Every structure is written in structure tokens, then in C-alpha cells.
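Might you be able to check the C-alpha cells below? Thank you kindly.
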Amino acid sequence: PRAFAALVALSFSGAIGLTFLMLGCALEYYGVYWPLFVLIFYFICPIPHFIAKRVGDDSDAASSACRELAYFFTTGIVVSAFGFPIILARVEAIKWGACGLVLAGNAVIFLTILGFFLVFGRGDDFSWEQW
């Protein structure tokens, strides 16, 4: 039951984040779909974590170099996802209102991804590894 409630909440927050992203693209006043390229950042964001978890499973150290490198790459991906719409707005490829909607969507989506790993990444009786 707890896993089901968490999954529903994460799905709902992900849908809200994607709604912000789509509003930043599809509203008639904005009408440019360049911000959809942040979807690439959403998909590649968890990859460093998956690689570090696979490679560094055997160490019991509080911090490993592989895990720290994964945090570094993930941070770079997240910062790039926030910087991309700002750069698009600065070069006037999109309007600043669309940039704000995309940034709001980024915040919600990345918090959803973080929530997913906090809820399902602990390795207890329900984890993402079972899915």
C-alpha cells in the first residue's frame, strides 16, 4: 500500500512537470517547441547513478570515487537542463514566459526523479529493481 501511494504521487507530480513543459511549448503565444529538448536531460539524468550502482556495489565505504563521479555527472546534467531554456531565452529563440514554465517543469520533474530514487532505491521489500 505504501509503495502504491508513492507511485501514484510520483506519477501525479511527473504529469504536472510535463504539463508545465508542454505549456511552455504549446501555448499559442509561445508556439515554439525548442524547449522539448530538455526531455533528453530527463532521460539521461539517472544513467550515471545506474552505472555507479552497478560498478560500485561491493564497497561498504561511506563514499566511493565512482559514486562521487556519478553525483558530479548528474549535477552537470541537471544544471544543463536548467541552463538550456535560459540560453534559448537569451538568444530569443523562445520567450521568457516559456522559459519560466520550462524551468518550473524542470524543478518538478527533477524533484520527482529524486523522489523516485529516495522511495524505491533503498533495496528493501519494494524497490525499483523489482520493476
Q: What stands out?
A: The helical segments are 2-26, 38-44, 47-55, 65-90, 96-120. The two ends are 16 Å apart (CA to CA).
